[in-house]
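Following up on my earlier thread - several people asked me to post the actual chain instead of describing it. Fair enough. Here it is, all 339 residues.
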Amino acid sequence: MKFLRELFHQELDADGEIEIVGETFLRRDILRQLAPNPYQIAFAEWKQARENALFEKAEIILARYDNRARFDQLRATFGAGAMIPFVGAGMSAPSGFPLWTRFLVDLAKESHVEPTSIEQFLQQGKFEEAAQSLHDDLGSGLFNENVEMTFSKLCEIDGPLNYLPTLFSGGSVMTTNFDTLLERVYTHQDNNGFDRVISGAAMSEVLRQMASGSRLLIKMHGDCRQVADRVLLKVEYDKLYGDNDLVEQFFNGVIFRQSILFVGCSLLNDRTVSTMKSIVRRYGAARVPRHYAFLELKASDDRVTRKKHLAEANIFPIWYPEREHDESLEALFLKMLET
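Reply from S.P.:
Thanks for posting it. Predicted structure:
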């Protein structure tokens, strides 16, 4: 994977540039150009040591609760090619994008909306209402500009997101993120990218394209640069999810075809989870594939209650420790690739 070599270069260059008769050189370039064989050996040793540490991390995670048995089931499904990733904002955070709550809190400082009202919305999981109140105060122009400025920036792609093109190289990807990191990382890592990028607002089109075997990036809530297909404000959520037949048809088409792996998602007060619950209630858990999630377990969480809540949507969690998001996901991704 290309990003590993860049991480290796960053470590080589950590002690600064080398100056020779007034000229400066990167350590990576000196080693790579003057000693190519030692450079390759050093990279291979560095990569192996890093993988060993991550495998140890994965073993610690899988030894907790009922993680290991569930991971074995996940891995069997993944190995059969019957899994599609659902990517949340936590996968974009290592690259410098704010989580949605942080964006709303920061935007409130540039508005006349009382911070306490935004905090109350967020504490109740009413993210759409919080966004709607800020939009109504700022007006469409300012609000849309802030969304685009925040999520359209071109930055280095960092963290476990880099593993997705290797893990899921041939199929489609679903996301609720507004940024363009997935488009960029798939193009950069495997030089192909997606056949098409489709907004979730065009759900019927998504199902037709999936049936044809196209490799899709399904941006469930649209893109930061396109207001027309965006699903962000309460009125936009109500418009999309208010059409229960269309939404359920879409999820039926997805979740009856394969298992979903949620990564970088909190799955709290989530419209996706609610929709999946209604499908499971209608058809029965035994008729719906099991879905999985890599989830951070916070000290304040009631783990068993959360597990019961997710099971109603046929989603089964594998927990990793609080504030260890990047390393834990990378360890679990690497474990999925283990032969």
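Residues 2-57 form one domain. That should answer part of your original question.
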